[in-house]
Input
Amino acid sequence: MRAFTVAGLTALCASAIAASLPDTITVKGTNIYPEDTVWDSTRDLFYQSNLWRGKVSVWDNKKKEQFDVNIPGVTSDGTGDQQAAGVSLSSTSNAKHFFVVAKNSAAFRFDSSQKNDGACSYHAFSLPLTRDSKPKWSVYFDDVQKEFQQRQGTRPFGPVAAAQDNDGNSYVVFALGIPAVAKITRGGKNVIPWGYENSNGSQRPGYTGVAFDPQSNKLLAFGGPRPLTAYDVTSDWGYPTAVKINGNFGTLSGTEKLTLVPVNNRSVLVGARSPYAIAFHSDDGWKTATIKKTKDDRLANVGFTVVTYYTKGNQIGIYGGGAYFSDGANGGRTDFPLYKLDSSILDN
Output
C-alpha cells in the first residue's frame, strides 16, 4: 500500500482546491445590469455591457475590482438614446480588440413608443482597457438599415450581438424587423447589408445571438426563424442556411446570446434560453447539429441572457448570467453573479 504523509495529503488537497472552478463568480458594482459578458483569457478579466447606462464594466475577479469604460454618444445616466447590448472579442485567446453593440433604447418597447429608426451603433476598442479608453473607431447603422430596407422591403432594427472572423471583419445581427446581418470590414471602413431573410411574422423575428466558428469558417446566428442559421463568411454576400437540429430544441421564444466555447480543438456553441443553456455540436461543418441542454433554477429569475466560458488550468467551465431586466435602470443592485453550469453539455 502506498503511504502518504499528512503534509503530502494537505498539499494534494490544496492543489485540487486551487485548480477547481468556482461555483459562483460574483461581479460587484452598482447598477451594472449586464446584457452580455465575455471573459478575456489573456488578461483574466470579465467585460460586461452595462445595459441601461450604455457603458462597459470591467471586472478583475482576482483583485475583486471593477471599473467602467464610457462610450461617447452612448453612455448616459440610464435615460439615454442608446443602450449597451452585445460585447465580443477579436479572438478567444490573445485578443487585441474589444467590441460593443449599442441598440436604441426605444427598439424593444413593444408598444406605441417603439422606434425602428432610432440611433444604434458599434464601437471598437484596443486592448487592454482602462478607465480612460476611447473607441478606436465607431460606426452608426442608419445607412445600412436603409439599404436593407431597399433590398428586402423591411427595415431591420435592434442590433444585439456581434462576432468577428479570422480577417478582422465584424458581423452584427439585428433582432427586430427582419433577420439581418450587417458586415463591418476591418477597421470599420465599410458597413455592408451582407445577409438577411424574410420575417416569420413574430414579435422578435430576427437573430438574438451570433458566433464565429474558426474551424469551419462559418458564422452561426441564434434564434429568430430557427434555432441555428449558418452563413459562410468566405462568400461576398451572406446566404442563410438552416442548420438541421437533431434533438428537441423546444420553443424559439426567449433565445438570447450565443457563445463559442473551444473544447479540445472542437467548436461548441452554447446559447441562452431561460432557464436552459443549450449546447450545439456539429461534425459536418454546421450542416447539422446535435444539442444538449442543462437547466439551472438559479437562472429562472435573473433575466438570463448569456453563457460565458471560463477556464482554470485544464478545466473548462460555463457560467450563466443575467441582466435583471425587471429591476430597471436604478434598481440599486450591487451583486451580479455568474453561476457555474453543468459543463457535461460540452461533451460530444
Observations:
- The domain at 35-346 is CATH 2.120.10.30 (Neuraminidase).
- Helices lie at 6-19, 142-152.
- The first helix runs from residue 6 to 19.
